[in-house]
Design goal:
Elements lengths: L18 E7 L5 E9 L2 E9 L6 E5 L4 E9 L4 E8 L4 E7 L7 E7 L1 E7 L5 E7 L6 E7 L4 E8 L6 E4 L5 E6 L8 E6 L5 E3 L16 E3 L2 E8 L8 E7 L9 E5 L1
Antiparallel strand pairs: 1-2, 2-3, 3-4, 5-6, 6-7, 7-8, 9-10, 10-11, 11-12, 13-14, 14-15, 15-16, 17-18, 18-19, 19-20
Length: about 260
């Protein structure tokens, strides 16, 4: 159902078969994107429905080949980006036109688990985290909606997918990753324009929370605050790291020692 915020009667949006999940609203607010999962038989379907009421439109069905887990309107509502899992137990990224009968394009496949997908506010790029089939590596992927291409921003040897957050101007992101088994967890920045990255932290042993503050703009630079252990003997310290639009490493500033 849709309900006017000013009050009034709720409007039924249709009855797709199966368990219904509201996936997204179109940029103009006229359409709602629905995921319908049916366990008997095992399949998922994508529907669109007018917010003001009317017939639902079947956009895509997996048949009996798996489930759809996340779906978002992109490209001004003309396309849909979604993650599905087939019976081969791998997660895939697809893009399709938001019209009935459109055939999805496979952008990336073969991952063991999907954590979540985040769109930039302009909905022109998507950042997705995955892990491999052995659970030994995590991946941070960048999808460019206009070119329907997906590239790997980083591969982490940690069994957890990289933790990330977008910069306030949505031109970059910061993330924790473990480049290899012999390197401790590190903090990086990456450009959403070309994928170039820079390390923001000194070599260290990190606090296990793997968390940092939401990036903020400070004096023309983008800064985050996080816990840092320079070794196992010294106490944890609170550090800040900043970077500029050239993705150069900046000074690491200890704020608090405890």
């Amino acid at each position: 159902y849709s309900t006017p915020l000013s009050g009034g009667a709720s409007i039924p949006l249709g009855q797709p078969h199966g368990s219904i999940e509201i996936a997204d609203l179109s940029p103009d607010g006229s359409q709602v994107l629905l995921i319908a999962n049916d366990s008997n038989p095992n399949n998922s379907a994508l529907y669109s429905a007018p917010v003001q009421g009317g017939e639902t439109t079947l956009l895509h069905s997996t048949g009996e080949s798996g489930y759809i887990y996340q779906a978002k309107f992109v490209n001004d509502g003309n396309d849909i980006l979604f993650i599905s899992r087939g019976f081969n137990s791998t997660y895939d990224i697809h893009q399709m036109a938001a019209v009935e009968g459109s055939t999805p394009r496979l952008l990336k496949s073969g991952f063991a688990s999907s954590i979540h997908m985040v769109l930039t506010p302009d909905k022109k790029k998507a950042i997705t985290t995955f892990s491999d089939s052995g659970g030994q590596k995590g991946f941070l992927l960048l999808t460019d909606i206009s070119s329907s291409t997906t590239t790997t921003l980083t591969t982490s040897s940690s069994h957890d997918s990289p933790v990330f957050d977008l910069s306030p101007d949505n031109t970059s992101l910061v993330y924790f990753a473990k480049p290899d088994e012999n390197t401790p967890l590190q903090l990086f920045s990456a450009s959403l324009q070309d994928g170039t990255s820079a390390k923001l932290s000194i070599d260290s042993t990190f606090d296990t929370s793997d968390l940092f503050t939401t990036p903020v703009v400070n004096g023309g630079q983008i800064c985050v605050v996080y816990h840092l252990e320079t070794d196992l003997i010294k106490p944890r310290e609170l550090y800040s790291s900043c970077y500029d639009t050239k993705w150069s490493n900046q000074t690491f500033l200890p704020l608090i020692t405890r």
